[in-house]
Amino acid sequence: MLDPTLLTTLQEAQSLLCISHVNPDGDAVGSLLGMGWLLRRLHKDPVLALQDVPPPEFAWMPGMETLLTAQSPAYQQAVRETPFDVVVCLDASSQDRMGNAYNPSVHGSAPLIVIDHHVTNTYFGHINWVDTGCAATCQMVAYLAQALGVPLEGELAECLLTGLVTDTLCFRTSNTDERVLAVATQLVQGGANLAQITERTINRRPFSLLRLWGLVLPRVRLEDRVIWTTVSQSQLQEAGHRSHDTHLSSLLITADEADISAVFLEKAMDDGVPAVECSFRAKPGFDVSRIALQLGGGGHPPASGCTVSGTLEEVAARVVPLLQEARRAQAIHREQSIRDTA
Ligand code: 5GP
Ligand code: MN
Ligand code: MN
């Protein structure tokens, strides 16, 4: 049952601002564009904003031209001219994840609705709908559409299925349950093209990424069932890979001998302070979200991340032992619970 306050707040809003997270993935873009299509069906004209431009594999998504980046003159103008009476935040576990698309001193007086599926969500909104049982925020937007009487069809279905496909790695993650498949079926019945979405977002990758994997894989380390590697700015340049989306942590966790994977990616130094983006994955039964949260980030038990200040070497030397320690503790706990239930 959906919170009636959430539904009436959305229904009564005249001018809405919808925002998703920095470095947007398919679920961020899909839930944001999907929310746009849903609200337009309710005869509203929301502003859709992101801090960062979405990666090129999502350029084809319907409504992409309506997305504004926070830096764009159109967004600056909208913020100056429109007193938003509701802000909706999608697929972000904490306020900082909206980056500069959300300015508390400008938007803080409007009610903030949070719609998210991260276990690390900090409940930072006025209305918080957090469902960790959903595999994607797009799944939640599908339930929202149904509660508001909006059919799951056309562009809305296309955008929502994209987020479901990307967050579940095409229905391969362990949280792909009957409800996920039921929503996906409805979206396909509504006209979403599963084969095309999969082809565009999962089956293809730029050659520069394969070159990067070629540079990075020879230096992968595996110790205490934690598999990890580093990616430097010079490797990104040598490979000609512009995006910092490397999909390497998902690749590394496929190793049979590992329970946890980590990729440490050197951030471009804009302000002279070295920092590293960390991406973690875990096999079913292991949890990397708590470590990411401890380090100032967040995510899900099997997939999480954070940004830590320091050089690549410093951050890896600090974080890998934390992962090994957590993995050992979780393995012992798992064995105990298996014995207890035997
Ligand atoms: P990825 O490894 O694909 O970048 O991110 C995996 C998951 O971790 C995603 O659900 C993403 O939302 C979350 N995540 C990644 N980096 C951060 C971060 O810096 N802060 C928070 N709160 N979550 C993050
Ligand atoms: Mn996301
Ligand atoms: Mn998500």
Summarize the structure.
By secondary structure, the chain is of the alpha/beta class.
Which features characterize this protein?
342 residues; inorganic pyrophosphatase (n-terminal core); Diaminopimelate Epimerase, Chain A, domain 1; 6-stranded parallel beta sheet; 12 strands; globular; binds guanosine-5'-monophosphate
In words, what does this structure look like?
This protein is of the alpha/beta class and 342 residues long. The protein has 2 domains: 200 residues, inorganic pyrophosphatase (n-terminal core), CATH 3.90.1640; 135 residues, Diaminopimelate Epimerase, Chain A, domain 1 (Roll), CATH 3.10.310.30. It has 13 helices and 12 strands. Strands 3-2-1-4-5-6 form a 6-stranded parallel β-sheet, sandwiched between helices. Strand 11 and strand 12 form a beta hairpin. Helix 6 packs antiparallel against helix 7. The chain starts with a helix and ends with a helix. The protein binds guanosine-5'-monophosphate and manganese (II) ion (2 copies). The site of guanosine-5'-monophosphate (5GP) has 14 residues, from strand 11 and strand 12. This is Bifunctional oligoribonuclease/PAP phosphatase NrnA. InterPro entries: DDH_dom (IPR001667), DHH_sf (IPR038763), Oligoribo/pAp-PDE_c-di-AMP_PDE (IPR051319).
Structure annotation, total helices:
13
CATH superfamily of the largest domain: inorganic pyrophosphatase (n-terminal core)
User: Bound compounds, please?
Assistant: guanosine-5'-monophosphate, manganese (II) ion
- Number of folding domains? 2
What topology does this entry show?
Blueprint (H helix, E strand, L loop, with lengths): L3 H9 L3 E4 L6 H16 L5 E4 L16 E3 L3 H9 L4 E5 L13 H4 L4 E5 L10 E4 L6 H11 L6 H14 L10 H12 L4 H10 L3 H10 L4 E3 L2 E6 L1 H7 L8 H5 L7 E7 L8 E8 L6 H6 L3 E3 L2 E7 L2 H30 L1
Parallel strand pairs: 1-2, 1-4, 2-3, 4-5, 5-6, 8-9
Antiparallel strand pairs: 7-8, 9-10, 10-12, 11-12
Helix pairs in contact: 2-5, 2-6, 5-6, 6-7, 6-8, 9-10
